[in-house]
Specification:
Layout: H1 3-22, H2 33-51, H3 57-61, H4 68-89, H5 94-107, E1 114-115, E2 122-123, H6 125-140, H7 143-157, H8 169-207, H9 213-231, H10 233-254
Antiparallel strand pairs: 1-2
Helix pairs in contact: 1-2, 1-4, 5-6, 5-8, 6-10, 7-10, 8-9, 8-10
Length: 256
């Protein structure tokens, strides 16, 4: 008699567990697996208590004849849906990552790459700072509450074992492209300062060809870039907050 509840729990766990595994903040190797498993099980138990109230348990137990093939098909759909939502929610961090990488390339800091905070890839130290600031803002602004509320609402929009609505593929593609644009716009003030300093260096070398562009240009570009980052830090933080608001609106519209 308990078998239907176990099967239903497995479907909810498939969606939540895949989401926790794919979401960039939880898919890093440094995070213990026990923490990931505990978070996935805790969220599953919480959602099970909402999706299957005590009054509905007798009705659920009546459906004991479940085809293995049908169950595996539904289980695969839940895994796919959890992966899509995990990747979609990763758009919160994409603009800061793009901006940090873009500025690092302009400063020539890509030679000293480090492992990222949210993955196995490598990136420059300035990208680490931008990504760390985005993560702090993610939790400081309670954006993770938006994430959990959208995940909770997905069980009504995409019922367990039901057809539900179609996936918002076009909105997610637009969001991925827009996140890249927001990242470039985030880095634009600093890149304009770097472009101006580079233009001045080119004019100086034209006026005085004996100047060594490489020995003078790299330290000057680095000094101008880091100074610009410090001066524009409040604007950069405000822009990150704005991009997170845009991503929140995009995801709320995609998974109402």
């Amino acid at each position: 008699m308990i078998e239907p509840l176990v099967l239903y729990f497995g479907l909810v766990l498939a969606r939540v567990g895949t989401f926790v595994t794919v979401f960039p903040l939880f898919n890093q190797r440094s995070l213990p697996r026990l923490v990931k498993i505990g978070l996935a099980v805790a969220l599953t138990v919480m959602y099970m208590g909402h999706l299957v109230p005590i009054a509905q348990v007798p009705q659920l137990l009546q459906h004991s004849n479940v085809s293995v093939v049908a169950y595996l098909f539904v289980l695969g759909w839940e895994v796919f849906l959890g992966a899509v939502m995990g990747l979609a929610f990763g758009l919160f961090l994409v603009p800061a990552q793009i901006a940090g990488e873009f500025i690092s390339q302009g400063l020539g800091l890509t030679f000293g790459e480090l492992s990222t905070l949210t993955g196995e890839s490598t990136t420059g130290p300035l990208s680490q700072i931008f990504e760390g600031a985005a993560i702090l803002l993610f939790f400081g602004l309670d954006v993770h509450h938006v994430l959990l509320s959208i995940l909770h609402a997905s069980f009504g929009f995409y019922p367990i074992g039901g057809a539900g609505a179609e996936l918002p593929v076009q909105r997610l593609i637009f969001g991925a492209v827009a996140a890249q644009e927001w990242g470039l716009a985030l880095a634009m003030p600093v890149m304009l300062c770097l472009f101006t300093s580079l233009l001045i260096l080119v004019l100086m070398t034209r006026a005085a060809p004996q100047l060594n562009l490489y020995s003078i240009g790299f330290p000057l570009q680095l000094a101008v870039g880091l100074t610009a980052v410090l001066l524009f830090a409040p604007n950069l933080v405000a822009s990150m907050v704005g991009t997170m608001g845009k991503v929140s609106e995009l995801l709320v519209g995609s998974f109402p």
